Amino acid sequence: MKAEASVQVNKKNVGNQILGKFATFTKSYAIILAIFILGIVFSFASPYFLTYNNLRNILQQTTALAIVVIGQAMIVTTGNFDMSLGQNVCLTSCICAWLIKFGGFNPWIAILAALLVGTSVGAFNGLLVAYGDIPAFIVTLGSQMIARGFAKIITKASPIPGMPEEIQFIGRGFIGGSKYGIPISVVIMLVLFLIFTVIMQRTKFGRNLYAIGGSSEAAYFAGINVKKHKALTFIIAGALCSVGSIILLTRLDSAALTNGNLYEFDSMISCIIGGISLTGGRGKLIQGLFGTIFLTLFFNGMTMLNVDPFVQDVLKGCVLIGAVVIDVVRNKKR
Fold first, then answer.
1. Are 77 and 213 contacting, i.e. CB atoms less than 8 angstroms apart?
2. What is the DSSP string of 85-106?
3. Domain that holds residue 179
4. What's the whole-model pTM score?
5. Which of 23, 72, 157, 328 is buried most, with the most CB atoms less than 10 Å from its CB?
6. Is 286 exposed, middle or buried (0-12, 13-18, 19+ CB in 10 A)?
């Protein structure tokens, strides 16, 4: 009898553990359920939504923003945010296009120059925020305006179309053929997420970022170089903006002032919706990817339903406020 009772208790404990793990998973990754629900709703609303081409198109649209989200998520993890990411994307894509079209540079040299510029913008932000003790909002808002101003000067407020075929594969190429193949840009995005997920979850650097987000003062007394780590997150974000801008440039085949427009807000929305806390110290990088997919899915569905673009801007603002409210409530419960 005692043996039977022991077995029953063990079974009950195992069942409780499974339910507990499932509850934890659903709390952390509720965004996955939201993506499925959104997909089902839009599939009933439009017969073209669940087609392979449209889903692949959604992933392609996600790539540039998702890469920017990696940088924003790392910054948010430390308790900061970057308002210049979108204009960094714009500036680097315009510089790359100008060097190719009017500067006579080899496309790969132009891409390298764009990477250096994007990283330099991130370094400018990081050094002023970390070592100058200037609020991130002020610094990045200022660099946002500087980057946009330079982009206007470079392009003279006109698009620069027609990128060379030798680099178009970055944004338009497919592995396995154009009909059913996987976009190269999606592969680049997934590889970057894998690399930085390992960095954030498995390395001392990543753990230090979470510690700084939890309490920068405690992290300092624990021997962590807080200033250096904060500066590095902005530098990495700037470099990732450059990568995203090249993918966007080659996919759109044009550099314009609209490239990367509002990415600073979209990346923040993606982080918060995915479950990365705006106060820092909580959330996983992969949740930012799910948040990006949800956001792209939402507005792709809106476009397919012919919702006015201006109405979509209103909805985006509502989503941002709603995401922040959810984050505040979530933190209060914790």
1. yes
2. HHHHHHHHHHHHHHHHHTS---
3. 64-263
4. 0.89
5. 72
6. buried
